[in-house]
Every structure is written in structure tokens, then in C-alpha cells.
Amino acid sequence: MTVVYLLIPAFLLLASVFGLPLLRYAWLSFHADSVLTGLQPIANDGANWLRLMHDQRYWQDLIQTLRFAFASVGFELLLGLAIALLLHQPMRKRGLIRSAALIPWALPTTVMALGWRWIFNTPYGPIDQFTSLSGISLNILGNPSFAWIALVYADVWKTTPFVALILLAGLQSIPNDLYEACTLEGASSFTCFRKITLPLLKPYLGLAMTFRLAQAFGVFDLVQVMTGGGPASSTESLALYAYWNALRFLDFGYSATIMIASFVLLSTIVAFGWWLMILLNQRGSMAVTE
Amino acid sequence: MTLELQSVGRQINAKWIVHDLSFSVKQDECLVLVGPSGCGKSSTLRLIAGLDRCQQGTIKFGNRDVTHLPPSERAVGMVFQSYALLPHLTVYENLELGLRIRGVRIEERSRRIQHILDLVQLADRANHRPSALSGGQRQRVALARALLRNAMVYLLDEPMSNLDAQLREQIRPELRRLILDQGKPTVYVTHDQNEALAMANKIAIINNGEIVQLDTPIHLYNNPNSLFVAQFLGRPQINCLKPRDHQIQAIRPEDLKFSESGLPCRLVSREWLGNTQLLYLESAEGGLRMVAEPSFQCPERLFVTWQQSKVFRFDAKTGLRTS
Amino acid sequence: MFRWRKKLSVGLTIGLSLVLSLVLIPTLTAQEIEPVTILMPAPFADSTRDLVKDFNQKYEKSIHLDVIRGPLETEAISDLAISSLLLGDTPFDALLMDITWLPKYARAGWLEALDNGFDESDINDLTNGAQLGNNYQGVLYRWPLVADIGLLFWRTDLMEKPPSTPDELVAVSRNLQNNKKVPWGYVWQGRQYEGLSCVYLEMIDGFGGNWFNPDRGTFGLDQKPGVNAAQWLTDLIQEGISPEAVTNYAESETLQSFKSGDSAFMRNWPYAWAELQKEDSRVRGKVGISTMVAAPGASPASTVGSWGFSLLKGSKHKEAVIEAFKFLTSKESQLKMFEEYGYTPTLKSIYEDPIMLEKYPYIIELYKALKVGRMRPETPVYAQLSDVLQRNLSESLTQELTAKISMKNATSTSEQIMLAAGGLMK
């Protein structure tokens, strides 16, 4: 029983940091609270939610955000796995190389986004300089069909090291004996990878996926700096839309509605991720036999 | 078929961890490699399996030189200290994996796994994951997997060190039977001298990457070629008397006898072990260990004596036997 | 997603520490000295440093002026200011504001009227462009520090005189491009952001229309001039006068292109003049400025974008703050800022000074442009209106939709926003 009491301060802290603002936003989402109401909340009978239902922009942003999140997380997992496998190999100066691989992740997002904006710049960025050698100018950031791909590219560049780090931890948790036993059975290294590495890495893949999906779903600074949501709003994310409503339009009621709706969606995705992880965990137990 | 190592060696960072090692193991033979930890015994095993590369010497399975073959082509059955079972697969799947890899047909797989499961008495555990098994059961799964390999050579790397003492004693005869029944050269690594004595046809005592002495257990016990071997085998440990003329005399605890005269000793402490008791004595020759009848009431002061023929003599500098 | 909440908490932390220091400073310094604090974007905080020093020397006995160096980006300053204003007790007395924020801030009730500090004659001293955007519903809420105005930059080495109509601009560009003098004709801000609204405003007015008519409360985006403006900008890209990539160009990308000698024309703000005269500029000494092109019969228009001081409600040092405003915007200060940092002066007298004209002949063009300065819609919901325009115009520029349809969509959405705001206007 005393244990429960000891947890109270931690619980209160969590509740005040996460719970109270959420409750406040949920409450605000049922009120008009904007520059037009003199920044006073006035109950509006769910008008915000009705507006959200019919707000094509919200649903477009939702689709764009999901597209961005799944594409970047997908690539990050594939690439992160490859990098983790590479970093797991014994090599000279392994510690140094591992630290170096983390540099992109350590860079502030706005700084690296600004960098990428110039790298993708047409015609002065290196990418365009390169492609224009073969007479092609891609104009990636200025094209509504491609701009989001540039964002995915930049996000993959920045956060793959994070995924690789988690997966590397996973790889290191797999005892070498398992591979040796597998080799002795006559297996190729690909068979060992398929029969040992992948199944035992599943929980870590799930963890990385959940973390990254949650982050990618809330993408903000990257979009803000690289494209500002354009061109033709093709890269606007939910976070950007909520931010615009709050701080540019001073429409806090609707901004709160967007945030609560997005929070519910995000929680669903994360819950789904965890459920998937638990499911996979039952198959590939994280604990390895003694 | 004979397993043969000729001048095998491997070095890491310019230090030989296995050096100039030669021995041969005939079929039906179990050679136990024993020595303190870090002596190179496990490394030797990994060289035979092909998990590490030899930088020196040759390894032969019969007439076949396997020195440069990858592990998958050597056909060795190995039991790891950790058992190395895949946690996400059932016992059956764990056993099946190797057979599948080697392209054994499904009916044949099933038949052989059933057979081996019966042999190691785990038929009722086939659909359990390793995490649901006891340590002894896991060990038997690992053994079963090695046996399924149809190996030329069996290698066991401290297969019982994760088991409690009681279980070890239970499993020892079973393990010995299962392994020796295969009629293949077997190399068994342990750091436990009791296990070594129990399992071995021959024992190689290894220190600093080299064989100190290789012989049958009885011969090793009765004829240690060095102080290291004498001290390594036999519990309680052999007694060393004060060095004289650059010579160390050593005598086993069970060869010390009580008498009316002889070396005066004082009882320091005693351990009652049920079927015997171990006495710790102090004398002018230094501390002595002695084995006595369990019912013996040891006086505070006593005299011990021994037959000169039971005394081993070693050079104080080199530790080698002089007589 | 909770980014702005984070900003709020950052604001709260900064705010609290500032409040604390405000409480502490008066007890530490002599009682009669009034502390005045102004929040400015970093570039302005840096360029006014000497003036602030002068001010504090002059008012040594009565006022101490403190400038808080805010973030670099315009919008980041707004976020910071709003975050602390929302908390109620602001840690600053005044704020250096962009021209588009004023109606929103005034409507939110965060600003104090300046009518007591400045009178009709003060206002008449300002150039036309600088007079704009300081009032909300007839009340003066802002006093300009620097004027800013949209300009057409042109290459004196490639043509005798700048074009005056859109067609002329296209013809000159095409000719130069065909003769391989320049890869591009005209570069401008086509990225989906505030700059695009400024570009469009100049064109819709240049085609004889209106973005927003405050008297009637109507939008002119889908009228002929509005569609023409959108079509003209879209065609620039389609016909290769402007690079396709202008759809993600902001000021810096535009400047890069013009500075490298790759374009014959550029739409930008006066700050670019100094940049183009720097060592690394390939067009140094070959640049002229002019007002934006306009269709025959329509008068040219330049988007006004000035920065000015506003007094925040709740300041306890109103008189002292106005003293500071007056000092920082005085003719001496204006001259200093112009000569040292190239900031566009607000006072007529500077542009009419023969010595100045001789020293800096190009300010004639600045003055002309300031005379035809135009305001973006002055309403508290401007940010929404601009956002709608940017989204739809960007769809036209990237050929997702035709100019006509995109401007129709922009109009109807703008009308909905206005309707929701209760027809709220000037």
C-alpha cells in the first residue's frame, strides 16, 4: 500500500504536465475563443467539432501528415536496420564511427531544415546542380507532387541515426552464440539474419516504429522551415495547421479542437503500435534464454 | 575416425591464447580440456568448430584437413554453455531448424526429432518455448540439437556450468552415455575438475594456451608432471610442504596419517562433510589439509606422518616434477 | 503538435524572469528613474543599440531604456509577444510590430492608443507609405521606426530604363533571355508564405483592382484584375520568364538569383539594395530600382511593410515610453539608421533634402514607391485572409488549378472568414 502513496507525487506531476493541459484543450475545443471573442471563451455547442468535420483542409493535412509519417518511418526502419547491421560489425574505431553516425540526429531540426532547403534549392543547390548536368531540373521544393518527398528525405536523413541506435541496442542484446550455433548447422548468413536477427529484433523495430510514428505525426519545424506548408499547401502538417490557428489567427478554440482530434488519432496509432509490439513480443520474447 | 590437432595456435593482439597445441582424440574417446578460466580451453574448442581461425597448425577429421573449412562444412555438433536456443521458437522448431537448413525432408525431419526427443526424454516438451523449460531441460534440448547434426566430432563447451550441483550429478552419467554412444571423437571443456574426472577418457590440463599434461584421469592424478597439475586435480587440494633445497614436496590430504610421533600439528579448523571430515592443521611445514573418518574426534594437538613413496617432488622454480 | 504550448511555456519562463528583474531593478536603482523595456526582433535590436545608448545618456536622470533582443524571424517575434501577452502581465512596455499585426493586436485589446503622444503635424511629416497601417478603427496605435516598400529591381547594364507595364516586363525579359544575356527574366517571392501576398497585392492593384475593399467589405480576387494578376504570375512560370522554382522562393532565394546576375528583374524590399552593392555581388553598380509595373490606365502599387512601435496596455511608464519612441524615430535617428544600416526613412523631409538626394540619388525611387504604397487588408483576421490567398494562389502557380478557379475559391473562403468574423472591417 505504501508503494501506492509514494507514487502520488510522480502521478500528480504527470497529471499537471500532461493531463491538465489536455483537459483544458478538450474544454476549449467546445468554446469559441479567438480574437473575435476578445480572447474570452464562449461555449459554442460543438461548432468547432462540426467545423472540423467539414474542414477539408484538416482532412487533407491529416492525409499529408500520415503520408509523411509512414513514408519517412518506413524508410528510416529499413535504412536504420542496414546502418545498425553495419555498425554492429567489428571494425576499427567503432566507438568513433558510431558517434559520428549520430551527428545528424544531434543537429537542431531548424538548422538542418534550413540546410536542406538550400541543398534542394533550384537552381543553386547541389542537387539541382547535379541533376542539371543531365539536363533535368527537378524543382523538388517548388512542385506540389514532389515537395513532400524532399521533406521525407530530410527527415530520414535526420532521424535514421536514432532508429539505428535503437536497433543497434537490439542487435547487441542478441547473444553471439545463437549465430554461431546457426552457422554450425550449416546456415548462410542470410538464413541466420532471417531466423535469428529479424525475429529477435522485432520488439526493437516495434519500439523504434512507435517512437518515430509519434514524432513524425507531429512534424512541425521541418515543414515550417523547408516549405512553410507549400507549395499549394501540399506539405502542410496537422501540427502546422494547429500552430497557425493558435498563434497566427489567434483562434484558440479551433486550434484546441485540431490538437485534441490529432491527439486522439495519435494515441490510437501509438496504441496500435504497442499492441502490435506486444503481439510480436509474445512470439519473439525480448528475454533471451539463459 | 580420429580428431587430430597438430601445433594449432591462435593469437590475439600479439599474444598467443592457444599455442602449439597438439592432441588426437579417437572415436569412442572423450577428451576433457580442463584448466583455469582464460587458459585457452574454450578457444581450442572454437578452433576445432571453425568459429575462430587458426593462425598456426592443422586440424584433421580423419584424413580430411578441415583447417581452412568454414564451420558449416565441418560437421561438428556443439553444445554451448548458454545452450544457444532460439527464444522465439519451440523445442521442436529449434531442433527442426538445422535439419531444414540442411534440406532434410519433412517426414525424415519429424522421425528424427521424435527419436531424439525420446532419447533425451523431452517428448512432452516439444511445443514449449525454451523460456518454459528448466535449466536441465534446456541443456538436453541443446544436446539433442547437437546429436541431430550427425556430426563427425562432438564439442561440448561447459555444458553443465549453468546447472546446480545436484542436477549436474544426475545428468553426468546420462550425458556420458548419450555422447559416447555416438562413437565419435568428443572434446569436452570444463573448469570443474570433478566433472573432468567423471566424463573423461583422457584429460588435457591446459594453462596459458598450452597443454601441461595429457593423460588418463587416473594417471594424471597419480602422476602429475608438475605442481600445477598436482594442485589442479584432487580436492581437497594437495598439501605443499616448505620448500627445501629448491624443491617442493607435495602430498595429497588422504595420504596423511595420524601417529604417535612425526610432524607435530595443531588443529586450526575442521569441516564436517558427512562421509568424511576435512581438517585444517598448522605445522612447522606450513598449513596442511587432511581427510579423516567422519567420527574421528580430533585432539587439539596431534602428530601426522606419511609414506615417502606418496610424496611428489617438484622443482621450486619451474614447478616441474623431479621425482 | 504541442509546439505552441511549448512556446507558451518558454514564454512563461522568460516572462517570469523578466517580471522578476523588473521588480528588482527599481529597488536597486534610484527611484526617480523610469525603466522602459521594448521587445524587438534581433536585427532591429542590434541596429538600434547605439541609439539606445545615446538615449540613456540623454535621459540619464529620468529614464532607462532596455531593449530585449528577440528572435531573428518576424513570425517568431510575434509568437513570443503573443505568448506573453496571453499570460496577461507582459514583461515589456512596448513592442516593435510588423504592419500586418496591428489590427489583430488592437482588436485583442493589447495596445494602448498613442494619440496623446503624436499629433496631426507629426503624422504629416511622414511619407505616405509610412502613414499607412498605424491606425485601427481611427485610433493611432503604432509609430513607424522604418518604412518598407516593395520595389522592382532592374539591371541598368541590360536596358535603358525599367519597364512600366507587365507586358513590357515580359517582352524585355524574353528578349534578354533569347539573346542569352540572362537565364531568367524576373524573380519574385512565389513560396506559399506572406511574401506571396505582398507580390500579389502589387499586381492586383497594378491591374486596377483591389484585394479587399474596406468600404464595401468585398473581395476583388475573382474580379478581372484579380484573375489577371494570378494569371500573369502563373504565366511567368509557364512561359519560362521566371524559373519554375520560384514556387518555393522567399526573399533570400530571389536575392541569390539576382545577385548572381541570373535574372533581369527582381521584386524585393529596400534592404536588397545594400546587399547588391556588396563585394560579392555580380551586379554591383548595375542595379536600378523602380516602382512595380502596372497595366496601362492603372497606377503602380507597392506593398507597404513597415515596422513600428506600439505601447502595450498595462505599461506603467507610458510617458517615458513615448519619449523613447520619439527619440528613436526622430530625424537624427532616422538618418543614422539609413546611413549605417540602409533602413528606409519614414520622414518626408529626408527625401526632400537636396544634400541627401545628391548623396543617395536612388532614394528618389524609394520616395516614389512610398507615395504609391498600398496596405494589405487591415482587419484582425488578416492572417487568415492572407493564408487563404497564399494557398489558392500557390495552387494556381503550381498549376494544380487554373488562375480563375483558384481565385474564385480564394474569394469564397475569404468571404466565409469575413462572415464568421461578423463582417468585421476597419
Question: Would you give an account of this structure?
Answer:
The complex is a heterotrimer of chains A (290), B (323) and C (426). In chain A, strands 1-2 form a two-stranded antiparallel ribbon. Chain A contains 13 helices and two strands, in the order H-E-E-H-H-H-H-H-H-H-H-H-H-H-H. Chain A is globular. Chain A is mostly helical and 290 residues long. Chain A has a single domain (47-283), classed as MetI-like (MetI-like fold, Orthogonal Bundle), CATH 1.10.3720.10. Chain B is built from eight helices and 18 strands. Chain B has two domains: 3-228, P-loop containing nucleotide triphosphate hydrolases (Rossmann fold); 239-315, Nucleic acid-binding proteins (OB fold (Dihydrolipoamide Acetyltransferase, E2P)), CATH 2.40.50.140. The model of chain B has no long low-confidence stretch (mean pLDDT 90). In chain B, helix 2 packs across helix 3 (106-119), helix 2 runs parallel beside helix 4 and helix 3 (106-119) crosses helix 4 (135-148). With 426 residues, chain C is of the alpha/beta class. Chain C folds into two domains: 3-148 and 305-367, D-Maltodextrin-Binding Protein, domain 2 (3-Layer(aba) Sandwich), CATH 3.40.190.10; 151-303 and 379-420, 3-Layer(aba) Sandwich (D-Maltodextrin-Binding Protein, domain 2), CATH 3.40.190. Chain C contains 19 helices and 16 strands. In chain C, strands 1, 2, 3, 4, 7 and 15 form a six-stranded mixed sheet that branches. In chain C, strands 9-12-8-13 form a four-stranded mixed sheet. The longest helix of chain C has 26 residues, at 3-28. Classes of the chains: A mainly alpha (290), B alpha+beta (323), C alpha/beta (426). At the A-C interface, helix 12 and helix 13 of A face helix 1, helix 4, helix 11 and helix 18 of C.
